[in-house]
Write a structure and sequence with these properties.
Layout lengths: L6 H16 L5 H12 L7 E6 L5 E5 L8 H4 L6 H4 L9 E5 L2 E8 L5 E8 H9 L21 H12 L19 H7 L10 E6 L2 H4 L3 H7 L11
Antiparallel strand pairs: 1-2, 1-6, 3-4, 4-5
Helix pairs in contact: 1-2, 1-5
Bound molecules: zinc ion (2 copies).
One zinc ion binds next to loops.
Length: 232
């Protein structure tokens, strides 16, 4: 039975302890994984409010982190991605989270593949999870032929031209390997979940990080911070 707890909850619980204990000996990529998982689908990443004109239903949808190690984002991938971009542990295997400890389900291959559970500290859970993090340039799939990295775009454009199809719309994501869109989810996002209407008003909710004063930009452009009033 699912607990309703997610890997993200375990990360939020143990991230501070983990970083103070092991933060110095982990890679930049692993730090990015912690940051992505703890912020995925929260107000930290911004999102959208949707208001249905027909029934008045309102909902908030926050953006996902699109990190390839994030279980929540991986749940959106299909087919091959289920195996090739597999994460260390999925949300449904989290059984319990209390007092800084997490109990999760695993399969014991040394004991006839029996399903068992184990309880460890959230700090240790994060340490083990991050052991599965791939270096930034490392990929589990190596493409060949017209999909080989070199000249891929040029060859795909030629293929599209020969086939007479429209150019693909570029995906605005950080990691193209996690951009496999789930058509059903996109369809669901465009409809009211209560009455099914498509008469929806969507308003963007910017990330709070976007709203912060761009100090680094001010420094780079040498914008005076005192002695003169800011431009109106
Ligand atoms: Zn509605
Ligand atoms: Zn995510």
């Amino acid at each position: 039975m699912q607990s309703g707890m997610e890997v993200a909850d375990v990360f939020r619980n143990g991230a501070d302890r983990f970083l103070s204990r092991y933060g110095h000996c982990h890679s930049r990529e692993q730090h990015k994984v912690i940051r992505a998982i703890t912020r995925c689908r929260t107000a930290e990443l911004g999102g959208q409010t949707q208001f249905c004109h027909d029934c008045g239903h309102q909902r908030i949808q926050y953006h996902s982190c699109r990190n390839r190690q994030c279980p929540k984002c991986q749940a959106m991938a299909r087919y091959l991605a289920r195996y090739t971009h597999r994460v260390a542990i999925s949300d449904r295997r989290i059984l319990e989270l209390r007092d800084g400890r997490v109990r999760f389900q695993y399969r014991d291959y040394a004991d006839g593949q029996k399903s068992k559970s184990m309880m460890i500290s959230t700090c240790e859970f994060i340490r083990r999870f991050l052991m599965h993090t791939l270096p930034s340039r490392f990929v589990r799939i190596r493409y060949s032929g017209f999909l080989a990295n070199r000249f891929r775009k040029q060859r795909l454009d030629e293929c599209r031209s020969l086939l007479g199809v429209l150019p693909a719309v570029p995906a605005s994501v950080d990691d193209p390997q996690t951009s496999i869109a789930d058509d059903d989810q996109l369809e669901a996002a465009s409809k009211c979940p209560k009455c099914g209407s498509r008469h929806i008003l969507t308003t963007e909710l910017p990330s709070p990080h976007v709203l912060r004063p761009p100090h680094f930009l001010a420094a780079r452009r040498k914008i005076p911070t005192s002695g003169r009033s800011p431009p109106s």
